[in-house]
From TrEMBL:
This is LUD domain-containing protein. InterPro entries: FTHF_cligase-like_sf, LUD_dom, NagB/RpiA_transferase-like. It comes from Clostridium felsineum. Residues 7-199 form the LUD domain. Pfam families: LUD_dom.
Length: 205
C-alpha cells in the first residue's frame, strides 16, 4: 500500500469514529495488542487465520487474561458456549474479510458470532487486516468477500457450496452456504471502540 492510500483510509475511517493504525509486520501488531489490553480484562477471539498466525490466544492466556476462543472448545456445545461468552467481553479481537479505503468494514459469517461481536457487545474491538483485504470501495469489498473469502473459507472449513468449485458467488441457497450473515460496518457511535490494525503483509482470505 502506498502512503497516500493509507492516509486516505485513515482519514475516511476517522470521520466514521474508527481508529486506524498501520504496522509493517504481524509481530508488531501482536506486541501492540499485548500492550494495550490490560491483563485483568476478558478477551473474545473471532476466528481468524491472521490471528492464528501470531498465536494471540496463547500469549494472552499465558500472561493471565481470560480468553474465550471457540478454537479451544472440545465439542460443539463448548464451541457455542465460547462464542456466546465472547459476545460480552471487555475486548474482542478478530480479522476481517475486507475493508474499503472509503471507510467500510465488510464481513461474512457462517453462524454470525463474529459479525455480532463486531457490531455490539464487547467494549473494545481490535480488527487485524492484511494488505490483501484492502480495496477502494464498498462494492469492491462485497465482491471480494463473496468471490474470494467465501470460497476459500468454505473449502478450509470443509463446506462445499457452489463457489468452491466455481471460484465465484452464484448467490446460492445451498445447505452448505457459508455466508449467512453479511455485515457492513459504516461507522461507530462510540469513538475509539473499534481499532483497525492494518498490516503490510498478506494475511488470510
Ligand atoms: S451465496 Fe453461496 S455461492 Fe455465494 S458466496 Fe455464499 S456460499 Fe458461496
Amino acid at each position: 500500500m502506498n502512503i497516500e492510500s493509507i492516509s486516505k483510509l485513515k482519514e475516511n475511517f476517522k470521520l466514521r469514529n474508527i481508529e486506524v493504525e498501520y504496522f509493517e509486520t504481524l509481530e508488531e501488531v501482536k506486541s501492540n495488542i499485548l500492550n494495550i489490553i490490560p491483563i485483568e480484562c476478558t478477551v473474545g477471539i473471532g476466528h481468524s487465520i491472521t490471528l492464528q498466525k501470531i498465536n494471540i490466544t496463547n500469549y494472552l492466556l499465558e500472561r493471565g487474561n481470560i480468553v474465550y476462543d471457540k478454537e479451544l472448545a472440545k465439542d460443539r456445545d463448548e464451541c457455542k458456549t465460547l462464542k456466546k461468552k465472547a459476545l460480552i467481553t471487555d475486548w474482542y479481537i478478530t480479522g476481517s474479510n475486507a475493508i474499503s479505503i472509503d471507510g467500510r468494514i465488510v464481513n461474512v459469517d457462517h453462524s454470525g458470532n463474529r459479525v455480532a461481536a463486531i457490531t455490539f457487545g464487547p467494549d473494545k474491538v481490535i480488527i487485524v487486516v492484511g494488505k490483501n483485504k484492502i480495496v477502494d470501495t464498498l462494492d469492491e469489498a462485497i465482491k471480494r468477500v463473496k468471490n474470494i473469502s467465501c470460497p476459500l473459507n468454505a473449502k478450509r472449513a470443509g463446506f462445499n457450496p457452489p463457489c468452491v468449485a466455481l471460484n465465484r458467488c452464484v448467490d446460492c441457497v445451498s445447505r452448505e452456504r457459508v455466508c449467512n450473515s453479511l455485515s457492513i460496518i459504516e461507522g461507530q457511535s462510540d469513538s475509539n471502540r473499534i481499532k483497525l490494525c492494518i498490516v503490510n503483509e498478506e494475511c488470510g482470505f
